[in-house]
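Support reply, case 0932

Customer input (verbatim):
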Amino acid sequence: MAEYPNILSIAGSDSGGGAGVQADLKTATVLRAFGLSVLTALTAQNGAGVAGFAAAEPEFVLLQYRTVLAGFKIAAAKTGMLCNRGIMRGLAPVLRERDFPLVVDPVCVSQSGHALLEHDAMGALRDLIVPLADLLTPNLPEAEALTGMSISGPREVEAAARFLRGLGAGAVLIKGGHALFGQEEGMMTDWLCLGDGPVLALNHPRVHTSNNHGTGCTLSAAIAVFLGSGFSLEEAVRRAQAFLLRALETSFNPGLGAGPVNFLAGAGF
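Our regenerated output:
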């Protein structure tokens, strides 16, 4: 039997099934990996929005993490919703000791606009978690929140990416789904900063759909899977983008509000 990499998601639960840990585990499965989880929060949500969330106790988040690592060899991990300073302060020391790549998706706000990060936790995210990232994957609003910059063009994107690398992130992928600039007709651009060289503009078709719940979670989880499968960081990003594109092209709506991407589109990817 083939050996599948163990991929760890440290994130919140989405009761609507399209984002958070649920999206991460579905992504891992269809990309031929074994998904494990450390739950940081429970959310009450569906495609129309988030009704509320309850954060786990930091001590229990840490217990989950230590128990998973005691039982499994982790090939790669990702973080999503980390909720508050207590959880970040608990996780930061143990994540610093890891021997696997870490993708940090700095989740601050849900797709529907509901805050998923307590108001006083942005500093902890920036100071404690960002420096641990082998790859940081903010969208434009998250990049602005983390840097304090206003991003209105490719030059500001590059400055923000280099600022975030200066905080300690090994590489930065700034997602361009919210961008109103630098986009060719029918295309969208993500920007990848791998080091001191030029920032790479990664262009791919823009899919016009309202079924985009959980896109950031899915992308970061896919990157973690490909990193855990042995691909280079740039190749992992490009493969994850191709997977997400296919999942968006075949997205559907099982209920109220925004539907999820079609995770099964990646089967056999």
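We compared this against your earlier run and they match. Two observations from our side: The radius of gyration is 17 Å. The first strand starts at residue 6 and ends at 14. Please reopen the case if you see a mismatch on your end.
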